[in-house]
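<instruction>
Derive structure tokens from the sequence
<entry> Chain with its tokenised backbone below:
===
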Amino acid sequence: MSIAAAGDPARSVGPLLDEGAVSQFDPRYGEAVPLGGQIARLVAPNAGPFTGAGTNTYLLGTDEVMIVDPGPDDAYHIAAIVRAVGGRTTSHILITHTHRDHVGGLPMLQRSIDAPTVAELVPSLNISLWNGLFVHKDTPADIREKIAAVARETVMSERAQEVAAQTGAQVYWLPAAESSAQITADIETSARIAEILGN
């Protein structure tokens, strides 16, 4: 499978992903793919280890839309979003988190679409995206410690940090108590956003 390079979906950037990783997923770069209901997805041509086939941008709504995550600073992708929105009103732009692959295209998008970001509507809100390694609460302590040690070594490795820097991700390790506190805060923030947006 040929994975497209940013800005030029016809150009291959090589074997960034295993063939099987995207065999059931056709990103259809440059096209708004209906997912059902009032949701459409556009995939940015920025394939990589952290972005899979590319960063997803979503359009929610029919007559009026909300854009979720403009994606990377990529003229091809931003033009696809603008085409997909067409003449419809954009109520606002929601940024789920501030990794470069999700927010990098915001300035370019805002030059074409006049819509506030949720952060502009509610400046005190900040959302991070967290992923974690979770084990069952009954896992023996010595096994949990071994899993945590391997996971931390992997996450903090030079290669993981290098890939993160190339893709705009931030990779870090938090001990269990700090991770739990961050997840709790992010869930509370998400609930505030849903309340503010009336959902």
Notes: Strands lie at 4-5, 8-12, 33-36, 39-43, 56-60, 64-68, 89-94. The first helix runs from residue 75 to 85.
